[in-house]
């Protein structure tokens, strides 16, 4: 669990591959979409989520139980992966998992903003990132946004948050703080990557993710027609957009769609873009980007068998599984039919 | 460059350097083979332990796969007997 020494991809890949085998497949999803929340919880208890369901079963019930068990299982698995990896491998994995740190920081800031009580914030945290328990505890104990910023002083979020806090004090909206956290995460994500072939593949994947995030944000802005500066939401590091081109394209939906259709992602996103033009629905586009990323992740898992790529591929697949089960449980709670829920799932 | 190498080879041969001794060369061959086997077992071994940590039933498979590169050393040992 450190960035020192040489990396040990063989060990981590072997463990991760064994775990990948126990992820849910088409068959399980089909069963799950026909169950109620209680049955889903029981089904999960008999699979790899058993320990979490049992630990949380006395305190929560129904869909909340499923949700918290999913979060905790995800956190435990990813912490495990970070624990096993050494050397440059640790650095590469931690880069991606820091997104959970960013998520936690944002959750705590929102909690402090709305004066939520400590245990309510705690259940929403996903402790999969790099922050250790002590820091998470101190974050939870911070009762104002100022205190949260202070706890994070010595992390990568320290300086950007401090700057954004001044802006927050003037305007009393959380957007600058959240943007600062996101930007700090994305800045670290793509800086100083190595130059061997698997790392380049990994970098290409991360860039695609940044591009899709930018594209989705721009599409949302273009469709809503809101008077917000698109450049403020721009994330550095992608290949598709620059700050200037995004700001220009976000003003005109047709031009933006055309631009994406001409890009290197045309094959993956083409059908979804046509649907966007016809039905005016962003959901299809967001699912298409998710599916494209997942397919890319699957491909990553097989090209370089002993490297970072199968591990990232597993992390993606696991994240997707958790999101799918959550979608099923929430869909059931809202009374959607099995077919409607199935259309919300992203399965490759 | 080539001539220099030739001259060097001649010099070594005429002075009877240790590497021209057949048993010394055989020893070197076995040593290098063992080094290779060790490097191979390092990767396979850590993968096998990882797989075993997830599923105990993989112990036998892991053990077999881990010692497979050992055959290189056994084959190299043949050289010792034929020189």
Automatic annotation (TrEMBL), chain A:
Top-rank lineage group of the source organism: Archaea
Membrane-topology descriptor: Peripheral membrane protein
Main location: membrane
Pfam families linked to this entry: vATP-synt_AC39 (PF01992)
Gene3D superfamilies in UniProt: ATP synthase (C/AC39) subunit, domain 3, V-type ATP synthase subunit C domain
Cellular localization per UniProt: Cell membrane
Protein name according to UniProt: A-type ATP synthase subunit C
Species assigned in the record: Halorubrum yunnanense
Organism lineage: Archaea, Methanobacteriati, Methanobacteriota, Stenosarchaea group, Halobacteria
Automatic annotation (TrEMBL), chain B:
Subcellular location: Membrane
GO molecular function: proton-transporting ATPase activity, rotational mechanism
Keyword Ion transport: yes
Membrane topology of this protein: Multi-pass membrane protein
Primary location group: membrane
Keyword field: Ion transport, Membrane, Transmembrane, Transmembrane helix, Transport
GO cellular component, one term: proton-transporting V-type ATPase, V0 domain
Regions that span the bilayer: 58-82
Pfam families in UniProt: ATP-synt_C
Matches recorded under Gene3D superfamilies: lithium bound rotor ring of v- atpase (1.20.120.610)
Residue intervals of the V-ATPase proteolipid subunit C-like domain: 25-82
Family note: Belongs to the V-ATPase proteolipid subunit family.
UniProt name for this protein: V-ATPase proteolipid subunit C-like domain-containing protein
